[in-house]
Amino acid sequence: MISRFAPSPTGRLHLGHAYSALAAHDFARERGGRFLLRIEDIDTTRSRPEHVAGIFEDLAWLGLTWDEPPVFQSQRMPLYERALADLKALGVLYPCFCTRADIAAEVAASGFAPHGPDGPLYPGTCRHLTPDERAARIGSDAHSWRLDVDAALKITGPLVWHEGDRAIDATPQVHGDVVLARKDLGTSYHLSVTIDDAAQGITDIVRGVDLFDATHVHCLLQALLNLPAPRYHHHPLLTAPDGSRLAKRHGAPSLASMRAEGVDPATLVAELRTRRAADRSIT
Length: 283
Description:
The protein is of the alpha/beta class and 283 residues long. 40% of the residues lie in helices and 16% in strands. A hairpin with a 2-residue loop joins strand 5 and strand 6.
């Protein structure tokens, strides 16, 4: 079996990252498997080389090792482009010319908008454009590519993914027509992570429960692209003393700052492993 840790180098790792990395690492090691590291740096405007170096430094401080050279998503754009071409050929993508302001205005004008895990769903404005309208705009207007979830499900039929040994009915429609290629990037988290997990042979994905709902979309993409489906193991998130989620944008203490303050890594790792032992979701 093969697990992975896949951080984005947009800031320094914090305690929540350490828990997730350790959980994925130990899950593989306990089963005689392999542990891989992937740097999810497709957002070149926010990713920084110093944060990549910091990831390596922090994981080494925790005593974690990986079994292959790290993979960088920014070097894998041709893979994502081919996957997009395959999805276009299936007829399950459409260009979206909407800006965020356009979408917000459309949602406000509707008086009611269905909500998904990440907020109001895309109202489907560009899904209803005619072929001629799309052709007239696609050569000159900036656009993303969205997944037509209803069209995709007509191809795949009902789907199931596995949370450990538990079968979960896939409901990607709760996310609406997600973006698979951003205007500025040419790909997205959903597309890139699905392609890379398959390309790296990942069999078991250990990650935070905040990504549980995203798995519905990944399951649909795996079926459309004939990719193997890994098993998933979503763990609870570590929280701050006030109960809020540990996050970079909320000022969670970084591992680098803990190291500078003289925190003993062996003690820290032992505490995290004790917490993981009590977490029965990672099985």
